[in-house]
Amino acid sequence: MEVFLVFLRLGVTSFGGPVAHLGYFREAFVERRRWLTDRAYADLVALCQFLPGPASSQVGMAIGLQRAGMLGLLAAWVGFTLPSAILLVGFAYGATTLGDVAGDGWLVGLKAAAVAVVAHAVLGMAKTLTPDARRATIAVGALILVLVVPGVLAQVAAIIAAGTTGWAWLRPSIAPAQGADAFSARVPRTVAIGSLIVFALLLAALPILATVTGNGAVGLVDVFYRAGSLVFGGGHVVLPLLEAETVQTGLVGHDAFLAGYGAAQAVPGPLFTFAAYLGAATTTGPTGIAGAAIALVAIFLPSALLIIGALPFWERLRHARHAQRALAGVNAGVVGILAAALYTPVFTQGITGAGTLSLAAAAFVALTMWKTPAWTVVIAAALIGWIAL
Predict the structure, then answer these.
(1) Which residues face 232 on adjacent strands?
(2) What angle separates helix 239-246 from helix 274-281, to the nearest 10 degrees?
(3) CA 177 to chain centre
(4) CA 72 → CA 100, 118, 226, 292, 303, distances in Å?
(5) pLDDT per residue as tens digits for the range 92-101
(6) What 8-state DSSP symbol labels residue 344?
(7) Cis link prior to 131 (omega < 30° from 0)?
(8) 364, 381 in Cβ contact below 8 A?
(9) Which bin fits 288, alpha (ψ -120 to 50), beta or left (φ > 0)?
(10) Sign of CA dihedral 192, 197, 203, 205
(11) pTM of this prediction?
């Protein structure tokens, strides 16, 4: 229940996309509650960058798993996902008419607050994970690579390059992560292997079952499970695949797809909850609440299976002697990647003039100096934006 309530509040207030979500998570779990350290958090973020699916949701699932086991993982996912899923299903039913909200003051204020949240996260992680010249250099190298060569593949390449550089260049005196500095979750090895097997079996078997049975529900599971399994980076990266699987196959109309995507930009939580809207708006097979539930579970299920399956092997790798310097380099690379994301898209979309810059600066001071909770800052920024911007 503790995990559920914390993530429910994050699900209501976490605007700004996956990078901003990582900032909100750090404020909530590293700074405020101290469930894990910056080093353990960066280890977890690095792992989730390698896995397909929505990275921020996977980080949340892993934190829930560490805190309260399998039920904690479920509670974290439900709490973080449910608010935006409910809003988008309501929009699919026509209960909410958002229209074009891109220029609305409250949304402008939320984007400005996201700049402050991500800047706060980058600054805090940089102090811990790049304390010397070599690791700071690795972070800047990752930042440059991601900015010069945009795209998800560049992020993965930056992490690999940072790890390789760390292994070859960093001093052996870097101490291995121990105790609270090491992210760990109790997952039996047999359970982890079973999760990976189930992940692979579903990916291979669902298309065959959908074709053989012709069942609409199985077809819906196949579409969204495949989308959650094959997309790296999450967020906007999944949209082309979803468009191909739903619009081009006639499951959802083109106009309905675009309307739902516009609504998804204005709600908190993970963008993958767009699947709930699509499931509710399908023209064939299960539709409405049943379709939304099927699509939502199917698109997030691969992430849960991969997190459960990968964590024990990640822990074993982290404790290998030759992996310590590489992981220190990876952690520095994560700082650089987040710093690049702070510039684009967070800053470039959130700062549109003197008003939004002033609001972001005030939010940053509230977070760093006054230690104001991120959710309070977000709500205040939305109100100020609604009134003044």
Answers:
(1) 53
(2) 10
(3) 24
(4) 37, 26, 25, 23, 15
(5) 887 445 555 5
(6) I
(7) no
(8) no
(9) left
(10) negative
(11) 0.78
